[in-house]
Structure formats: C-alpha cells, structure tokens
C-alpha cells in the first residue's frame, strides 16, 4: 500500500496489507481495520546493507484502541521489494510468538533543595533489541549523570529528581508508570526536563517545549546569550516528556538530532563510534546551566497549563492528557486583593501568596534591614486583604488556599480558619502541630477571635492578642 490516503485505504478490504512504513499509528490502524484489512505487514531495514536485521515491534494497546487486533508482522525491506517486484497476489502468513508480561524498572536519584517542590529530569536507559544503544539513549543518561555530577553539593532552591526511565522504546512505559504511581505528588513537580540523544559529531541541538511559548523563547535567548546554537520550538516530542505534559506539567525535551546516515538508531550501527566526547561535554555544560537557572529560580516562571495548540497536537496523535486542568491565580498584590470579586468569576481557585502580599501591601522590602521591621502579616491592612480575598472566593464558590509562610504560623491559623481558608500549604515538619491546632478549635470560638482582631489598629495589638489567646488554649 503506497500511502495512507483514502484511495489506498479503500483497497485494503479482505487483504493482507504491505505498508511502506516501519509501523502504524492509531488513526491509520483504525482506518485499515474499518476498511476490512485482514493483516498488516511492515518493512524494516536497508536493502543495500549486508545484514537482514528485523526490528521487534509491539502492536500497542494505544494503537488498537477499541478495534480488534489483527495479525501484524515485520519483514526486511529487501523481501518487501521482492514481493512488489514479483507482483505477488497470495501469501501465507504464519507468525510464531509468545505474548508475555515483562518487568521493567525506573531508577531514581535526587539532589535536595530548600523547597519541597521539585524539577524532574528524565532520560530512558533502554534501547531496541538490535541496537547497542550508544546514541539512543546512553547519551541521554550520560547527560543526566553529568548534570548530577556538576550540581551535587550546590545549594538549590528546587529539588532535582533524576528519573532513568525503563521501556521507553516499548511505548514510554517507564515514564507513564512514574506519572501514574506518583499522582499525589504531581502538583509538586514544577517542570520536566527530558534528554533524548545528545553528543553526536553531527546534528543540530533542538528543544521541543510542551508548555507556553515563552519557555521556548527563553531557551532561544539564553542559548544565544551563552553562545550555544539551538532550535527551540513548541510541540509534542515523542519521548518521556510526553506523559508529564499529558498530566498538565510543563515539559520539554532536549536532543541533538543527527541524520540516520551518520548516527542511525534502532539498529546494530548505533555504536559509540558515532559519539563525540567533546560534543557530549559541550551539550551537558549547556544543560547544566539551564537546569541550574531553573533550580535556583525564586519561583518557577513557567505556567502550569497546556496551550490549546499543544492539546490539538496531542489529540491528533491520540495521546491522552488531562483535559480538565483547573487554572487559578496567585493573589499577592494589593490591586489583586481589591479586584478579588471580579477575578473570582474567572479563576478556578485562588492561592494567596502572603509573603509578597504583605510586602506589596505595606510597601516594605523585607530584604532591606532599614525597613524590614515594618514587614508583618499581622498588620490589619494585610489581614483585611486576606479576609477579603477569602470571602470573595468563597462567595464565588471557588477554593482558596494559602502558600505563604503564614499558613503554618500558629498565631495565624485561628484567624485563617475563621476567615474560611480552604487549604493550608506548609513544610512537612509543620503539618502535625498545625493539624493538632486546627482540629482543636470550634467555629464559634474562632469567629469571636476574628471579630475582636478586626477591631485593632496595629500589628503589635493583633499579635499580642493572638499570643494571649494561644496561651489560654495551652
């Protein structure tokens, strides 16, 4: 079958179809089965090479979907040409194989940071049955090890988790399993950086970003700044970054893409001779700089959303993704608190950033020793802003959480509960004591405390009153 156009597909009825490809995707398979194909043959290899290797391929569940499974087989390209050249009309196709469930593992390492949020760096360590796997993908794993080696012992804001994925060549099984088994902590992953083949003598370095356009632009600007040639674009890259993007996590893949004439993959010619140690180190040095910048960002600047054009591309490739991602806003300026009633009609949730909200409301640089004494979350202006934000959110029926340090302050917790805060974000070490406080209060008691607190004019009065309240609770 020369193509996958409607005319070619229509000729598949009651036939074993010889495809001019090494595999088939979801939509073509569905069309072939609906057209009545009885079997599918694929072709692999170069007919001019001395060997007649045939790669092992799976008929994946994601391709079959709800349709029936038909017999598929791979033959060498030289055999495919002979079938067509001799105008063969009838063949008998016999396949002897045993389907089995195998076991694969991911290997994980971590460099801790100050925050409990983290960046996941991934690369797959498996290759295909015919390949030595030097380029695809020992080089990506070497990249992870190089980043780990250069950043170990350094102070980082975000933790780095290195995931060496198994079974990527079987359909991204390792990264899919990681995402599936770590659902509860996906919200703490701010970015996925995936490495897929680097360090060859030839080839251009690319970045494919499954996130907002601004990240691709940033990569281009940064690379230009340090003198590293790169082609950065947005899209979907078929590697271990995809399952993270499917889950709503900003993700990107880096790769040095070389022609199959000089760096072939999935065959016996994927050997270390195609690799340049000098180029590999240069690629790693760039990846270290990029990773370190994001690991030490005050706040990860990449929006946690999948742009519509990326969603469309995922749909076209029949790649599932989380379609109901909620988009909320950080509320951390005085202007945002005053407009909270308007924003609550558009946002799915509010997250109050008390550190910045306090700083901007009080016009105080908390890093300036001359004025930092004025910085206090207990200032009535800040408390009234917090109460307004929560009230507007609750009236609009959306969740309101807090991600600043105030959420774990024992003196603040009674007030936040009285205001109606839904979600408290804090470090793990503060959870047990905070939970004990929260479960020990009554609504009526806390409302009376909040009403009294709102009558004070200074932060000192509020803090003194809350200390006396807490002392009475002891």
Q: What overall geometry do the principal axes of the alpha carbons give?
A: elongated
Overall SS class:
alpha/beta
The strand order across the widest sheet is 4-6-5-7-10-8-9
Q: Helical content, roughly? A: 25-40%
Separation of the first and last Cα atoms: 81 Å
| Low-pLDDT stretches | none
Question: What is the residue-averaged pLDDT?
Answer: 89
Number of helices: 18
Number of strands: 14
Beta percentage is 15-25%
Largest sheet: 7 strands, mixed
Radius of gyration, in angstroms, nearest whole number? 29 Å
Model description:
It is a single chain. The chain is an alpha/beta fold and about 475 residues long. Helices cover about 40% and strands about 15% of the residues. The chain contains 18 helices and 14 strands. The protein has helices at about 5-10, 25-35, 60-65, 75-85, 135-150, 175-180, 215-225, 240-245, 275-295, 310-315, 335-340, 340-345, 355-360, 380-395, 415-420, 430-440, 445-455, 460-474; strands at about 15-20, 40-45, 70-75, 105-110, 120-125, 160-165, 190-195, 205-210, 230-235, 250-255, 330, 350, 400, 425. It has a seven-stranded mixed sheet, with helices on both faces. α5 (about 135-150) links the parallel β5 and β6 (about 160-165). The relative contact order is 0.08. The mean pLDDT is about 90.
């Amino acid at each position: 079958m020369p193509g996958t156009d409607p005319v070619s597909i229509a000729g598949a009825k009651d036939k074993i179809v010889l495809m001019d490809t090494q595999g088939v995707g979801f939509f073509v398979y569905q069309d072939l089965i609906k057209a009545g194909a009885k079997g599918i043959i694929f072709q692999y290899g170069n007919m001019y090479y001395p060997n007649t290797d045939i790669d092992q391929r799976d008929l994946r569940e994601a391709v079959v979907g709800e349709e029936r499974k038909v017999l598929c087989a791979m033959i060498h390209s030289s055999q495919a040409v002979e079938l067509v050249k001799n105008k063969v009309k009838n063949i008998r196709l016999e396949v002897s194989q045993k389907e089995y469930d195998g076991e694969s593992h991911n290997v994980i390492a971590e460099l801790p940071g100050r925050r409990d949020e983290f960046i996941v760096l991934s690369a797959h360590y498996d290759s295909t049955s015919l390949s030595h796997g030097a380029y695809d993908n020992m080089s990506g794993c070497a990249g992870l090890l190089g980043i780990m080696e250069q950043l170990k012992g350094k102070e980082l804001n975000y933790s780095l988790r290195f995931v060496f994925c198994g079974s990527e060549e079987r359909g991204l099984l390792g990264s899919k399993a990681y995402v599936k088994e770590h659902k509860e902590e996906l919200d703490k992953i701010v970015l996925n950086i995936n490495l897929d083949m680097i360090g060859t003598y030839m080839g251009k370095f690319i970045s494919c970003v499954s996130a907002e356009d601004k990240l691709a632009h940033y990569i281009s600007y940064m690379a230009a700044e340090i003198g590293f040639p790169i082609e950065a674009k947005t899209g979907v890259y078929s590697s271990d970054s995809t399952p993270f993007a499917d889950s709503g996590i900003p993700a990107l893949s880096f790769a040095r893409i070389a022609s199959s004439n000089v760096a072939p993959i999935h065959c016996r010619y994927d050997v270390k001779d195609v690799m340049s140690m000098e180029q590999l180190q240069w690629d790693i040095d760039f990846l270290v700089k990029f990773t370190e910048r994001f690991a030490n960002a005050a706040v990860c600047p990449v929006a946690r959303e999948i742009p519509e054009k990326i969603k469309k591309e995922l749909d076209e490739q029949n790649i599932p993704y989380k379609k109901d991602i909620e988009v909320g806003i950080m509320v951390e300026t005085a202007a945002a608190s005053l407009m909270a009633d308007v924003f609550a009609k558009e946002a799915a949730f509010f997250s109050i950033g008390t550190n910045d909200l306090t700083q901007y409301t009080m016009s105080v640089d908390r890093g300036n020793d001359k004025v930092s004494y004025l910085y206090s979350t207990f200032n009535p202006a800040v408390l009234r802003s917090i109460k307004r934000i929560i009230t507007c959110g609750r009236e609009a029926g959306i969740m309101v959480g807090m991600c600043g340090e105030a959420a774990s302050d024992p003196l603040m917790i009674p007030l936040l509960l009285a205001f109606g805060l839904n979600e408290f974000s804090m470090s793990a070490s503060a959870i047990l004591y905070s939970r004990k406080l929260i479960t020990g209060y009554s609504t009526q008691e806390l409302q009376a405390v909040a009403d009294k607190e709102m009558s004070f004019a200074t932060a000192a009065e509020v803090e003194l009153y809350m200390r006396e309240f807490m002392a009475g609770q002891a």
